[in-house]
Amino acid sequence: MLLGHVGEAAALAFLFSLAEALEDRAMDRAKEGLRALLSLIPETVRVSRLTGDVTIPAADVRELDILVVGAGERVATDGVVVEGRSSLDTSAVTGESIPVDVGPGDPVAAGSVNGAATLRIEATADGRNNSLNQIVALVAQAHARKGDRARLADRIARPLVPAVLIAAALVALFGVVIGDPWTWIERALVVLVAASPCALAIAVPVTVVSAIGAASKFGVVIKSGEAFEQLGTIRQVAFDKTGTLTRNEPTVVDVQTATGVTRHDVLGWAAAVESTSTHPLAAAITAAAQDPVNATDVVEDAGCGITGRIGGRIVRVGNARWLNPGGLAVTAESMAARGMTVVVVEADGQIAGLIGVRDELRAESPETVRLLHAQNIQTIMLTGDNDRTARAIAREAGITDVRAEQLPKDKADAIAALVASRPIAMVGDGINDAPALATATVGIAMGVKGSAAAIESADVAFTGHDLRLISGALAHAKRGRRIMTANIVLALAIIIVLFPLALFGVLGLAGVVLVHEIAEVVVILNGVRAARRPALARNVIPAARACALDGMTRDVVTSNSGR
């Protein structure tokens, strides 16, 4: 400014301020996600006392209290069933796609939703220190660790800026020593401008903003520049199963019948007695049946099955622990090995057939895995589901590395161990995935059906549901990272070339400023190239529409065929 170059000084200040503002738009909305996690815990809970049941705040529950959990209510803290039998929807906590039958002695997790019968549960943790609170703590810790990672441009600029300041000061000091201070002070300022990382300051933000804007147009929301840079480094992808690789919609996929019984009979009888049940498997069976008849005298045995009368026939429908499959035992075992939940149908004391219910793989899941493998990216499945079901689904998807029966903490620990070897992305949609999403190098949330906690804990969210966008997003980020690296190399090259020219007086202030401005224009134009979508992303959108139409056609055929 003393030399009269106020415009250049203002431009420098503006460029650096702009870069800082863009970089400061980092994602830190985890608090909303934590509130969503905590909302799974009910505000009040019924506790059994000697004088009767009393309602107290959930936070006041103490270990060994007996909780009374009615039908449809959430479990306030971890515990063990001491009385009653029911089914629990644990999908929000463990990712288990099929409700779990529980009885006396079985453990239950905080946040699970009770089925049709009342349970009495002995608390094994107090209301402030249960598994859901631990999930909240894991997410917060993971975000704190990720916030400490420095960006590439920052790591370069940190030693560069003080070095330039020292060099300029030494040049000015040299002028004072030799008795020509004003000439060398001016040259020191030229050196300072020549080595000023203007292009470096804008190299990363302009690329990131262009690339993030382009990604949002094909359904990928990248929440920060840091997340974008990290997305381009990914070498392995871990998938949750339920709701991510699968549809999270249990459907009837197989029906096996005893001699003399038709498929129509088995589905019709089962649907008749299940029509009034609220169990998710009942909905799947009812949807698969054609014109089910009415049943009377229906009685549900929570956690086991249901009994009813159809005409003069007594029909029972339940799990294989309650109803022995008898002559169809081998078939039941084979169905279970293929990842199905087996429902046994009995008529007048004789086994009539078996119904296999499964959460089906998404149509695009196998292709997504193939696309990732083609990019030399490893795939892993992490799921809270049982090992047999998980391996059956993974086999169909083309994934060989399977980690089943994982609690939220187990998933986060597995991701932390994997991160130590190479950058990893975690793809999930449930609250139980939140710690793993936050721990991964990059967390990717499925945004359509995903929980708020999962979306807030992730670094990247999909506004659509097509998994093939993952490969497109990774290719897009890798290309953007290459552009970003080229920009940084160019910016550093400008400094390396200009510094000696300025130091020895070959270039004056006007020449240095001109070169800087040209370099900045080149860097900006190169960064804008990151706005182009990669071929993979351009191809996924029309393919997704075709897949959706094909899926609707299959659904119609499935519905009409009873399968």
Question: In a few lines, what is going on in this structure?
Answer:
This protein is α+β, with helices and mostly antiparallel strands. It has 19 helices and 22 strands. Strand 18 (378-382), helix 13 (387-397) and strand 19 form a beta-alpha-beta unit.
List low-confidence stretches.
Answer: 25-34, 142-150, 541-563
User: What is the CATH first-level class name of the domain at 249-361?
Assistant: Alpha Beta
Beta percentage is 15-25%
Query: Tally of extended strands?
Result: 22
Shape: elongated
Termini separation comes to 79 Å
Radius of gyration from CA coordinates: 31 Å
The CATH H-level homologous superfamily of the domain at 249-361: Calcium-transporting ATPase, cytoplasmic domain N
Mean pLDDT: 78
Q: Helicity, in percent?
A: 40-55%
Category from helices, strands and their pairing? alpha+beta
Task: Describe the largest sheet.
Answer: 7 strands, mixed
Strand order of the largest sheet: 10-22-21-20-11-18-19
Please identify, by name, the CATH architecture of the domain at 249-361.
Answer: 3-Layer(aba) Sandwich
- Count of individual helical segments: 19
